[in-house]
Specification:
The protein has 2 domains: about 25 residues, no CATH class; about 35 residues, no CATH class. It is built from 2 helices and no strands. The longest helix has 12 residues.
């Protein structure tokens, strides 16, 4: 996800589209991405995700999912 304070142009476009569809109660929309992958350890997962994230503009969370 983008850090707060960084303009999310796609999110603004979705907010405007929702307003035009009658969803006037929507105040703000932020758009992020989800990556799903398998790793043998948390450390390996963190190394992989850091190759996909611009930490200056984005933050990430790692969740362990059970099968």
């Amino acid at each position: 996800m983008l850090h707060k304070g960084i303009l999310d142009n796609a999110g603004s476009a979705v907010t405007n589209a929702l307003h035009s569809l009658g969803f006037d109660s929507v105040l703000d929309t932020r758009i992020g991405k989800t990556l799903e992958f398998s790793a043998s350890s948390f450390e390996e997962a963190e190394r992989m995700i850091k190759t996909q994230v611009n930490e200056v503009m984005e933050y990430y969370t790692i969740e362990q999912l059970e099968d």
